[in-house]
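Run: sequence + guanosine-5'-diphosphate -> complex structure.
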Amino acid sequence: MNGGRSFTFKVILVGDGSVGKTSLIRRFVHNKFEKNYLMTLGSEITKYNETIEGNNISLVIWDLAGQEGFKNIRQNFFTGTNAAIIVFSHEENEHGENSLKNVPKWLEEIAKHSRKIPMMLFGNKIDLVNIDKLNADKAHPKSDYNLNKLAKDMNFLGYYKTSALSGENVRDAFGELIKELYIKQMSIFDALRKEL
Ligand SMILES: Nc1nc2c(ncn2[C@@H]2O[C@H](COP(=O)(O)OP(=O)(O)O)[C@@H](O)[C@H]2O)c(=O)[nH]1
Ligand SMILES: [Mg+2]
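>> structure
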């Protein structure tokens, strides 16, 4: 019997400004997309609850709000986090390109501040690009081939192409992370139970 436990996981979203972190959280938690909203300074916290096999899973999702410079992020943003999502943008301009180039910097920042945690890579704003065209050229830095390889080399759990605007893959991508956190937690419980 595993029923009725409650687990709380802290998940952080990082990535350059404007890649769509806040929009992804809104899409996932409220199934909404808004073009304009007020940006606040600091970090914003959104709660999300789900039941798996009769167990209550609470995600506490931390979002950087308007202070995405690597150096500016305070320690308590990272402290105690159970998972991280690094977001870049697929938009085809300098901002989009830089957001991908900065992924290793975000990874370093996470490694510096927290222990080894599950991480996912989201390539957002997929609605703005022609994915078939990207994938037709395997050598393209943003082809599935190259980004899956990058995700593997950097020890991400996986790479997901998302759109907060259309909602494409958002539920699946967050769902995969929740499943991973849940399975990991349950295996710890099972190991402990065997010791008793
Ligand atoms: N086309 C498109 N625009 C998006 C998407 N996600 C976010 N945006 C827009 O990109 C801008 C920045 O989004 P925001 O969520 O504030 O990014 P953040 O700074 O990383 O939190 C806003 O104008 C959003 O409406 C997406 O998937 N597709
Ligand atoms: Mg934001």
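>> summary
Residues 17-23, 35, 124-125, 127-128, 163-165 surround guanosine-5'-diphosphate (ligand 1) (CB under 6 Å). The mean pLDDT is 91.
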